[in-house]
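Subject: Sanity check before I submit

Could someone independently write out the structure tokens for this chain? I want to compare against mine line by line before I put it in a report. The sequence has 80 residues.
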Amino acid sequence: MSALALTGVGLMARPASSAPGPQEVVTRTVRPGDNVWSYAASITPQGEDVTKNVDRIMQINNMSSPNLRVGDRILIPSDE
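---
Independent answer below. Compare away.
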């Protein structure tokens, strides 16, 4: 699989390990107050189920718990 290229400072693309093919993602550095729910809500279209994207983020990042630590880097799907 090949990585997808993104432009912008602090953005990186990697294939998601659980997706059937490469998936575009952005890398975020966790800041105070950030949580998986807020990241998921930011990519969920209005009226859709945020929990699906919580699960998706946890799966992409191989997380067994939704707990984040400030300074961690987390991959967020980018469906653009």
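---
OP: Matches mine. For the report I'm noting this point. The chain is about 25% helix and 10% strand.
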